[in-house]
Amino acid sequence: MGSVMTASRQSGISVWVVHGPPWGSFTEDKGSVAGKFCAGLFESSITCLDSHQYQKRYKRIKEMVFIGNMIWFVFGGFVMGLGWWLAGVLALITIVGIPWAKACLVVGQFAFLPFGKVAINRRDLLKQSDIGTGTLGFLGNVIWFIFAGVWLAIGHLLCALMCFVTIIGVPFGLQHLKLASLALAPIGKTIVDKDVAAAAGYSGI
């Protein structure tokens, strides 16, 4: 998706404005996350549209995403999201399972309304590592994979297969595949709009 961008100077600071959602405007402070993100917008390939074209395309896509999410939410998404959040609460109670509890909450957020969003590694988004994207995060994902991830992924794969068989359920099957992939190694991931992920240079959409 394209956007309309202008540049101006305010008190010696470059201000890059992206007209229209989902970005709004960011001030490019070299040391800030917003600044790094804004710089990423200009490093990525973005097609510029005039305001009218952009708004029409954006509205049409958002309407399709909304309809897909509502159908998904009513026919299973609500239950799936609650299931993931319940698992997160149980992991949280054990104290030692706090890292996995956070991962369950992230996956649950995705399971509620997956259309129009993507799971992305925080290192790819913020261009810097944290505890969840480093060695400890990797070890946490290995433990998660053995005791829970592989089984959850198999469950989502089976659901995807049933959706694909119906033909009309193919879009929902694709969402189950995304959830299966995320279920394998959720630690260190976050959920963002596809537009934000693309602007950050993420190519796995």
Structure in words:
This protein is of the alpha+beta class and 205 residues long. The longest helix has 43 residues, at 51-93. It has helices at 33-43, 51-93, 98-112, 122-126, 135-165, 170-184, 194-199, and strands spanning 4-10, 13-19, 25-27, 117-121, 189-193. The strands form 2 sheets. It has a 3-stranded antiparallel sheet. A two-stranded antiparallel ribbon has the order 4-5. It is globular, with a radius of gyration of 19 Å. Residues 1-49 have low confidence and may be disordered.
Secondary structure blueprint with pairings:
Elements: E1 4-10, E2 13-19, E3 25-27, H1 33-43, H2 51-93, H3 98-112, E4 117-121, H4 122-126, H5 135-165, H6 170-184, E5 189-193, H7 194-199
Q: What tags apply to this protein structure?
A:
single chain, 205 residues, alpha+beta, three-stranded antiparallel sheet, two-stranded antiparallel sheet, 7 helices, 13% strand, disordered N terminus
Oligomer: single chain
Element-level helix/strand string: EEEHHHEHHHEH
Structural class: alpha+beta
Helicity range: 55-70%
Based on Cα principal axes, name the global outline.
globular
Number of helical regions: 7
pLDDT < 50 runs, ≥5 residues:
1-49
Using DSSP, what is the number of strands? 5
- Sheet bearing the most strands, described? 3 strands, antiparallel
Write out the strand line-up for the largest beta sheet, numbering strands in chain order: 1-2-3
**Average of pLDDT:** 77
Beta content comes to: 5-15%
The gyration radius over C-alpha positions equals 19 Å
- N-C termini distance: 13 Å
